[in-house]
Design a protein that fits this description.
The structure holds 2 protein chains of 2 kinds. Chain A is built from 2 helices and no strands. Chain A is an all-alpha fold.
């Protein structure tokens, strides 16, 4: 889970989730606390979805 | 007032005007000889350090910082006509936008050459510089060069497309690095052949070229084996790929019974940094109790990582280690259990071999603790 997905892919990560920003992969200081938590929930859910999905080499 | 004007004065005056004209013309010639556009991050561009990493892209006339020396090192009359500066975070998060901006600026400036960096070990800077150089080379078709340390993630992303001078990690070597960059630019613009990576100082692109050698392969390989057996140094003719493919672990079949751990390379540690985690090139990792926590509180944690602006994570550590959301998912039954500790290290300027060891040690611990899956958060 990272904002810099090209690096994650380059080192061979199999399951990569787009984070919000380099200074906070799971946050956003520009939005309200409630919206930020919803964003975090959404990104964590994407990670869980990735973990429970089979992936194939590309 | 003054001396009366005579013929001599008139002649002198004429010569003065001629000289002035001559100098003016020279300047015009100079300005049209070799036009260079240079890309820098906010630090080398003189805007500021990590706290300015979100600064957007801007363009200034003339050379700034390393560009001043660079323009003197390129053959003939060269001039950095334009310097483009962008914060590292902004560039990494808006790479397409920055790339378009630079390509357009290079076209508008009618540049003959494009340079980015040197970036040394700065990872976000290196990735941006590599991407921009590759785009300028492909879309504008002028010679480009950048420089970075071999460990910079920009190297493996772009080494095959562009020339990347091996800058090493030491910023003090700036002038030598710029000399090598200028040398390769001179050759590229004059359509001269570029020599071997070790001669020219660039990072191998993985290109195999035919070469006539005096000795055949059998003799060469025997020489290598003899040297290897005798413990002497020898040079392989094969270059190793930096990253071996990693087989994808199978999917977690039932999340509702799975134990999920969080690992981060963002350097989050408890207040006071009990393990003395270094903020750069960490050789250790830590494991910190979250079993009784529903939410990580600001003030309870420090960040040991000098590669990004830590303030937002210090304000709310869940932005890096999302305990609040995971705990809710655990209570709702969506996942079985949140592992009782989070694991942390500082993923900054860390040699790959060291990072690999840290990862293996973490994996061993988590596996023996019965963890089913890991969410790794990376800054």
């Amino acid at each position: 889970m990272t904002a810099v997905t090209p690096v994650a892919r380059m080192v061979g990560s199999n399951r990569v989730v787009q984070g919000k920003g380099i200074v906070y992969p799971l946050g956003d200081a520009e939005i309200s606390n409630d919206d930020e938590k919803a964003l975090r929930r959404d990104i964590v859910q994407q990670a869980l979805d990735a973990l429970s999905s089979e992936v194939s080499e590309t | 007032m003054g001396l009366p004007i005579n013929k001599e004065h008139l002649k002198l005056g004429l010569r003065y005007i001629e000289n002035k004209d001559f100098i003016y013309n020279l300047k015009v010639v100079r300005r049209t000889d070799m036009r260079v556009v240079h890309y820098l991050n906010q630090f080398f561009g003189g805007i500021g350090g990590e706290e300015f990493a979100s600064t957007g892209v801007s363009s200034q006339e003339g050379a700034i910082g390393p560009g001043r020396l660079l323009q003197q090192l390129i053959d003939g009359e060269s001039e950095v006509v334009n310097t483009i500066i962008c914060g590292d975070n902004y560039a990494a998060e808006n790479l397409d936008e920055i790339t378009d901006f630079v390509v357009n600026s290079v076209r508008e400036a009618k540049a003959d050459l494009f340079v980015a960096g040197p970036c040394f070990e700065a990872g976000r800077y290196g990735v941006a510089a590599g991407a921009i150089c590759a785009a300028v080379s492909a879309q504008v078709g002028i010679p480009v060069v950048t420089a970075m340390a071999e460990e910079n993630p920009g190297v493996d992303l772009f080494r095959q497309e562009i020339y990347i001078i091996d800058s090493g990690a030491n910023v003090g070597a700036m002038s030598e690095v710029l000399e090598k960059m200028a040398k390769i630019l001179n050759k590229l613009k004059n359509h001269q052949e570029i020599g071997h990576p070790e001669e020219e100082g660039y990072i191998a692109q993985g290109i195999v070229r035919d070469e006539i050698l005096e000795e055949n392969a059998a003799t060469r390989i025997l020489d290598m084996i003899i040297a290897k057996t005798a413990g002497k140094s020898y040079k392989s003719e094969l270059t190793q790929t930096a990253f071996e493919p990693i087989p994808a672990p199978p999917a977690v079949s039932d999340l509702t019974n799975a134990t999920i751990a969080v690992v981060t390379d963002g350097g989050l540690v408890p207040k006071g940094n009990p393990d003395n985690m270094p903020p750069i090139a960490a050789e250790i990792w830590g494991s910190y109790d979250i079993a009784s926590l529903d939410d990580l509180q600001s003030g309870d944690y420090d960040v040991q990582h000098r590669g990004y602006d830590n303030r937002h994570v210090l304000d709310d550590p869940d932005r890096l280690v999302p305990v609040d959301v995971l705990r809710e998912l655990e209570e709702a039954g969506a996942i079985g259990k949140v592992y009782e500790e989070f694991l942390s290290t500082s993923g900054l300027a860390n040699p790959i071999a060291n990072s690999r060891r840290l990862g293996q040690e973490m994996a061993k611990k988590l596996k023996s603790a019965g963890v089913d899956a890991v969410i790794l958060t990376s800054t």
